[in-house]
Amino acid sequence: MTKILVVEDNQKIHAHMTALLRDEGYDVHGVYSAEEARPHLLAGEPPRLVLLDIRLGGISGLDLIRDMGHTMPPTIVISGEATISEALEALRMGIHDFVEKPFSDERFLCSVRNCLEKIELQEKIRQLEANRSQSQSLLGESPSMRAVMHQIQKVAPTKGRVLITGESGTGKELVASTIHHLSQRRGKPFVKINCAAFPVHLIEDELFGHVKGAFTDARQNKKGLFEESHGGTLFLDEIGDMDYQLQARLLRVLEDGKVRRIGDTHEREVDVRVIAATNQDLRAMIDEQKFREDLYYRLASLPIEVPPLRSRKADIPLLVTYYVSHFCKEHQIRPKRMGDEAMEALQYYNWPGNIRELKNLCERLTIFGGDPIGTEDLPSHIFAEENKEASGLIRISEVKPMSLKAFKNQCEKEFLETMLIRTNWNYVKVAQHLEINRSYLHQKITSLGIQRKKGRS
Ligand SMILES: Nc1ncnc2c1ncn2[C@@H]1O[C@H](COP(=O)(O)OP(=O)(O)OP(=O)(O)O)[C@@H](O)[C@H]1O
After folding, report:
1. Within this chain, do residues 242 and 201 fall inside the same structural domain, yes or no?
2. Ligand 1 pocket, 426 CB below 6 A?
3. Is the ipTM of this complex over 0.95?
4. Domain that residue 169 falls in
5. What are 203-261's pLDDT values in tens digits?
């Protein structure tokens, strides 16, 4: 249970705040002075959030924050008599929110929930950064992204070839490198080549290498990427753009496990796991005779489809929070955050450039935007009607045959899960959005078997 400390000397307000919070299911501890608060703050397990009055009998709330310094847990100041300079000082000392007395129950609870949500997101990001064993972790908690991660975990330890499909910028390369890092090959090279980036003779030279004298510019022997990635993984990006003749050569290597450098007479054995990716429809290309069917089946033993960001909008807050914090660090900017309204606008936008677009925008907003980053900082195309789209959940065209009841349940389950993740499991908000009462929401969650993932408070 989330532990909250209430520090308030007014008996009536104290009792009201603690009762409200207990009703919401928090583990509430109440004290009447800063002196009494101190042992709670220094305890082995300090509160996750402190609700602090400024004017207290002895030491003031502001002095308590000052004394505790960086060990002060996240705090919301609740005050009726604070002067503007006191309020500004509290904000400068990094408090999360300032609630003026008298307050409405809704304003009070909303501030508590927002603050806890932010703490949870920040912690998750710190954890992700600490656990990072590769340059970038694959983030996402939406049902479709969890399914991709599940597939990655299944295919990583195998020797199978993987074909990753998905729109540009969805994270195909990141999926490939995650598979490599989770496989037995992780200590060995992960080599990548973009098959669309060079003319065909250069790709051939890059992949297979050459021997001295094989052509005019071949002054020395050169290893190809197959040899370079021996023992590891070779990632062939944009495989749909590979030249048709070259596809035949690639197929031979996949079949025999041997490469021959350009101009060489003998073959060398290589142990390479090939992962390919494309944003094109390879089956359609097979029909148009632009892609070899035999190569397709060699490459696509284990297909993984990475969904576009517009179909997993529940992941947007996590990605945005992560990248804003990442770029603050990278550019040595004081930590800032995305404002609530701006975050909401970003969730309505349909992200044609997927996560690459989101990442680039976060970098720009981190550098140019205010703190918090507001809607006024967002580029106008984010608000254009044609760029907005409701969260695409189930894709009807891909639904397997099932009874109408099972389909309704699946829709409801995905919808509820998405709303719960998007609001950080805030039942009050979800019930409000859905215009149902909380007990009915609880009933639905139980009957549909929706469970919060472990590892979250
Ligand atoms: N799930 C994710 N979590 C965090 N960052 C991500 C995620 N997916 C992608 N990114 C980031 O978005 C950017 C684009 O990802 P990536 O290059 O893997 O996409 P892609 O599908 O391979 O693109 P293309 O088809 O254009 O080659 C990268 O900087 C990557 O680190």
Report:
1. yes
2. no
3. yes
4. 143-305
5. 999 999 998 888 888 788 888 999 989 899 999 999 999 999 999 999 999 999 999 99
The verdict on 211 and 329 lying in the same domain is no
| One domain for residues 328 and 288 | no
Beta carbons within 10 angstroms of residue 338's beta carbon: 26
Q: Based on the domain organization, do 10 and 115 belong to the same domain? A: yes
Range of lowest pLDDT (65-69, 112-116, 289-293): 65-69
Centroid of ligand 1 to alpha carbon of 441 (angstroms)? 35
Per-residue model confidence (pLDDT) at position 33: 94
Number of domains making up the chain:
4
The residue whose CA is least distant from atom 10 of ligand 1 is 171
Centre of ligand 1 from the C-alpha of residue 131, in Å: 19
- The larger pLDDT score, comparing residue 256 to residue 452, is at 256
Q: Are 300 and 187 in contact (CB under 8 A)?
A: no
Same domain, 286 and 317: no
Whether ligand 1 lies within 6 angstroms of the CB of 138 is answered as yes
Give residue-wise pLDDT tens across range 382-394: 877 565 554 445 5
The answer to whether residues 377 and 442 belong to one domain is: no
Decide if 410 is inside a domain: yes
Among all chains, which residue has been given the structure tokens 């990475």? 306
150-157: long-range contacts at Cβ-Cβ below 8 A with a sequence spacing of 24 or more? 151/302, 151/304, 152/178, 152/179, 152/182, 152/304, 153/182, 155/179, 155/302, 155/304, 156/182, 156/183, 157/182, 157/183, 157/184
- Identify whether residues 123 and 78 lie together within a single domain: yes
**CATH at 260:** 3.40.50.300
125 part of a folded domain:
yes
Atom of ligand 1 nearest to the CA of 168: 25
Q: Is the pLDDT of residue 132 over 70?
A: no
99, 111 Cβ separation under 8 angstroms? yes
CATH number, position 360:
1.10.8.60
Pocket test for ligand 1, best of 181, 356, 358, 363 (most atoms within 8 A of CB): 356
For residue 202, how far is its CA from the centre of ligand 1 (angstroms)?
Answer: 25
346, part of any domain = yes
Same domain, 127 and 180: no
Which atom of ligand 1 is nearest to 166's Cα?
A: 21
Ligand 1 centre and the CA of 74: distance in Å?
33
* Protein residue whose Cα sits closest to atom 29 of ligand 1: 356
- Mean pLDDT, rounded, of the chain: 88
CB 141 near ligand 1, within 6 Å: no
% of the chain with per-residue pLDDT over 70: 92
H-only helix segments in 215-281: 225-228, 244-256
Question: Is 307's C-beta closer than 6 angstroms to any atom of ligand 1?
Answer: no
Looking at 7-156, list the stretches that DSSP marks H as alpha helix, in order from N- to C-terminal side: 11-23, 34-41, 61-68, 84-92, 105-131, 143-155
185 in contact with ligand 1, CB cutoff 6 A: no
> Cα(174) to centroid of ligand 1, in Å?
6
